[in-house]
Design a protein that fits this description.
With 150 residues, this protein is mainly beta. It has two helices and 13 strands.
């Protein structure tokens, strides 16, 4: 995968795509990523276009981990920044509950234990206990933890 030299994405060399490759022909959108491939390299893999007050972004492949991280950071920078850098096997998904609390679901997708740092004062939803900011959180193999912030 290649980001465009003047585009907003800075893809690492390890950015990949998998499973399929839509060849996007750009007419009125901005290409963000192209394939690094002798045949598919002529088409865009990711495009974006402003529409009204928002933006429509089309991803024409299943992004590998590094491409997905870069896209997520660009599309929703505030959503990623709360957990900062995570180990390669760990993902953190953040959403908003009906009552306005932020809910954080942290997964370790590996047989090896992992450790992350609480980015803010949290409540462990499953164990109903407080977790102060800066606390080291141990995740077992294939573990999931659910936290909330008030």
């Amino acid at each position: 995968m290649r980001g465009l030299p003047v585009g907003p994405l800075r893809l690492p060399d390890s950015a990949t795509a998998s499973h399929w490759a839509d060849g996007l022909t750009v007419t009125d959108a901005e290409p963000l990523v192209t394939y690094d491939h002798p045949h598919f390299g002529r088409w865009a893999a990711v495009t974006t276009r402003r529409h009204g007050a928002g933006r429509v972004t089309y991803v024409g492949t299943v992004p590998g981990r590094d491409l997905a991280r870069e896209l997520a950071s660009w599309l929703a920078p505030a959503a990623r920044s709360v957990w900062g850098d995570l180990p390669a096997s760990v993902t953190a998904t953040t959403g908003t509950a009906e009552d306005g609390r932020r809910v954080h679901i942290v997964h370790n997708w590996s047989w090896e234990p992992a450790r992350v740092t609480a980015p803010a004062d949290l409540t462990d939803v499953l164990n109903t206990g407080p977790v102060p900011a800066g606390t080291e959180l141990d995740l077992g193999a294939w573990d999931v933890r659910v936290f909330s912030t008030d």
